[in-house]
Amino acid sequence: YVLNFIGQEVPLLEDVSISNFALIESVSLDFDKGFTVLSGETGAGKSILIGALSFLLGGKGGVEAIRSGAQEAKVSGTFSLDEKNKEPFIWLEEHGIEIEDNRVLIRRFVRLNGKSGAWIQNTPVTRIELAEFSSFLVDIHGQHEHQSLMRVSEHRRFLDSFAGITDEVTAFTNLYSQLVEKRRQLEELCSSDSQRERRMELLNYAISEIEEAKLRPTEEEELIAEENRLSKYEQIFSAIDGVSSMLTGDGVGQEGVSILSTLKKAQSYMNQASGADNTLLSLDNRLENIFYELSDISDEIRSYLQSLVFEPGRLEIVQERLALIFKLKKKYADSVKEPVAKILEYQEKAKIELENLSNNLVNREELTAKVDQLSREVYSAAKKISEKRKVASEKMSQEVENVLSVLGMKDAKFCVSIIEKPETGGGLMQKCGPYGMDDIEFLISANLGSPVKPLAKIASGGEISRVMLALKSILVDSDTVETLVFDEIDTGIGGEISVAVGTHLKKLSKKSQIFCITHVASIAAFADNQIKIAKKTLSDSTVTSVQSISGSSRVEEIARMLSGDSVSEASLEHAESLLAKFGGEENG
Fold this sequence. Notes:
Elements: E1 2-6, E2 13-21, E3 24-30, E4 35-39, H1 46-56, E5 72-80, H2 86-94, E6 103-111, E7 116-120, E8 123-125, H3 127-134, E9 138-141, H4 152-163, H5 166-190, H6 193-213, H7 219-231, H8 233-248, H9 259-276, H10 281-307, H11 314-332, H12 340-358, H13 360-406, E10 413-420, E11 423-424, E12 429-430, E13 438-445, E14 453-454, H14 455-458, H15 461-474, E15 481-486, H16 495-508, E16 513-517, H17 521-524, E17 529-538, E18 541-549, H18 551-563, H19 569-582
Parallel strand pairs: 4-16, 4-17, 15-16
Antiparallel strand pairs: 1-9, 1-15, 2-3, 2-5, 5-6, 6-7, 7-8, 10-13, 11-12, 13-14, 17-18
Helix pairs in contact: 4-13, 5-13, 6-12, 7-11, 8-10, 9-10, 11-12, 13-15, 15-16, 18-19
């Protein structure tokens, strides 16, 4: 594997904690900048550590990752973000995740029952979201398909970085996005003139239908009240006539004395009594007020009775009007329970849409002109980028071959295939994508006389790692990816070649955070830091331990790498000499 982390002054990957993952029971590691080697006997579990990192960063991982006998596997890690790289900050802001001191804590777990979860800071995220975010921080390279050099789409990024046109390509992508959006808008306008005509007919009909109805916002409530009165005319008339008769004695069939006449006599008696006893004056006034109030009520009731005229055809007219409103609501409102105002609101919106559709012809002409202009700009920009890529590709191929030769692949041929996308529009315009008009792929021949073929299909893991090291060597001043983990880079090499590999890694570590899994002592001796990974059997279980080593412990580990399981005086002396020769600052 090769894991790439976007580097900075402080290491991007600051620490990792692993619990019950595969053979690892519990490990917590702090990482430093510079060159760090991970070593250990074959089968000790070095790949497990890489697997745990991949799991943390959104890689696939199921219950098979849980250590035997445990219920849950957990991995967490702290990452430092570089403010120069805006993409992770933008992603976090879009997802409402806040950070402090430009540091992010990522956590992930999986349980035996199949339940899993992931968090960025304290915000739960899906595995896909985690992988999306970590892609801004971590880039994987190696022999497997999900690693960067296996993805042909990433080859373009490497070439653009080498050519120094990354910003230019980003600007092109923005311009291309404008063209795509304008084309989409134009296609919407031109996609179906008949559909647009049908829509205009529907809108015209709706507007006319609502206008002919001559609706008033409060009309429905008034009609409902009137319908209620008309449908209960006899009941209302009988009740009001009864009240009037009781008050005045004038009703049909009314017998006896009316309330008003009785009250009038009572008021006359009270008037006489208050003349004799002034303490009754207040009661006299109250009785007089009641008489006048009832008289007024009686007059209003009589007036209401005179206006209460039953029109046989009016009820039908009211009900037809209410039925029309109900029909218009079903067609133009969200619900029949909505007020009449919603129908009128639809009418206004329909008028605006109709006006916009009527103006489509003008908009279409303007959009067509804009698309033509942007197409020319995109083509011109893509052509310039393509020319720069072609110039840079030859230089890149030569420099990669030079480094590969030093790294033990002296017969390797490396080249960058640049093929223009097929032409469209009768050959008048080159087809472009978001990154230009070129399809770019790295080709390699590892052996003398063999034709170059796609790197992703023929290179071994060790060759991939060395190609990656070569690319990073020539991109060290321009590439934003500055933290790497190399695995299998020492496959099939030794002697001077391993020293050359160590030298390159050491040089890269001056600007990058480098991790390297190796079995070769002469590579490990170049490292600033060393982590030892070992497998131990405890009672009836096997666990992998991980610890930083230095001093005599590191000398012993280098000696083991030199001689195998047995550590002799000679291997210890050799280890000390390697560390003295390659481990100093002057060897960087």
